[in-house]
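Researcher: Let's run the pair from yesterday's discussion. Sequence first, then tokens, for each.
Model: Starting with the first of the pair.
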Amino acid sequence: LPMRGFKNLFKKEFQIVNLDKVAALDLDIVNPEILLENGLIRSAYKPVKILGKGELKTKLKVTATMFSKTAREKIEKAGGTAIVQ
């Protein structure tokens, strides 16, 4: 039978990391390489998106491909910076 439907060839698939997992690392700087070392993502070369689930109490410098609106607000409210690479 022929395949039916449409498959978007240009769809970006992100690796999702919640803010509570990032906060549990207890680091000052977080980037894809550090997330890979700690087992939160599978590849440092695929795009990473940080979501806002959880609370952040320490100042962090987070580097990722994308941030949700709530994650960016929580990081900046705690005194940290959200850097888009």
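Model: Moving on to the second of the pair.
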Amino acid sequence: DIAFQAAAIGAFRNAYAKAAAVILEPIMRVGVETPLKFQGNVFASLNQRRGVIISTEEDQQFSLIEADVPLSEMFGYATDLRSATQGRANYSMEFAKYSEVPASIADAIIKKQ
């Protein structure tokens, strides 16, 4: 049994290397509503999470920021957002698309396997 498992793992690694496959990750569309004075903090927190800012809208007191952020980077975001905005911002998140994982992260995933 162990020999068959080892052979299957070796065959998969060999085929994966020859196929030039890519690893995909889910990208979420994140909308953050925040007071204007915390807009810079929200931009910084989204950029730290590999987010790409799509649009911003401002009115008299609030700013609505939309960004595409990998799902793997969104864990713990509620706590970070609360800290960065003194609890005055909120966010929503929905699936947007799949996108290729950056090479450095893909290499780390492959080595981990």
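Researcher: Give me one sentence on the second I can quote.
Model: The chain has four helices and four strands.
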